[in-house]
Amino acid sequence: VQLKESGGGSVQAGGSLRLSCSASGFTFTRGYAAWFRQAPGREREGVAAINAQGRPTYPDSVGGRFTISKDNDKKTLYLDMTSLTPEDTALYYCAASPMSGIIYYILAKDFTWWGQGTQVTVSS
């Protein structure tokens, strides 16, 4: 399985970005997919996840600003981010897992395959 993120970049506070993750060797109808982020000196944090049936899960920390979606035919996962703040600055990773069921908590240990990450920088 290979995952490749794109769409990162620099944006001013209050702006929006769409991240994409293209997958090979994995079908999003077969398991979980998620977005994580990691800022310097901080632990990796799950910011959105979606299960095989398309049910999304978000942590309280993103406050309704992030939306995860997927296009099963294109084998692409998306993360739409709005109202960005400097605290959203991080390396964003796409991850996938063969697990099934409802995602209650977005935990890195539950994900098997990872992309290399795409940098998001939000300036004030």
Question: Main attributes?
Answer:
124 residues, mainly beta, 48% strand, globular
Can you tell me about this structure?
The protein is mainly beta and 124 residues long. Helix content is 0%, strand content 48%. The chain is built from no helices and eleven strands. Strands 2, 4, 5, 6, 9, 10 and 11 form a seven-stranded mixed β-sheet that branches. The protein starts with a strand and ends with a strand. The mean pLDDT is 96.
Radius of gyration: 13 Å
User: Per DSSP, what share of the residues sits in E-state strands of 2 or more residues?
Assistant: over 45%
The arrangement of helices and strands along the chain is EEEEEEEEEEE
User: In whole angstroms, how far apart are the ends?
Assistant: 37 Å
Shape: globular
Q: How many strand elements?
A: 11
Major sheet summary line:
7 strands, mixed
The total count of helices amounts to 0
Structural class: mainly beta
Low-confidence stretches: none
Tell me, rounded to a whole number, the average pLDDT. 96
Helix content: under 10%
Short description:
The protein is an all-beta fold and 124 residues long. It is built from no helices and eleven strands.
Secondary-structure blueprint:
Blueprint: E1 2-6, E2 9-12, E3 17-24, E4 32-38, E5 45-50, E6 56-57, E7 66-71, E8 76-81, E9 90-97, E10 113-114, E11 118-123
Parallel strand pairs: 2-11
Antiparallel strand pairs: 1-3, 3-8, 4-5, 4-9, 5-6, 7-8, 9-10, 9-11
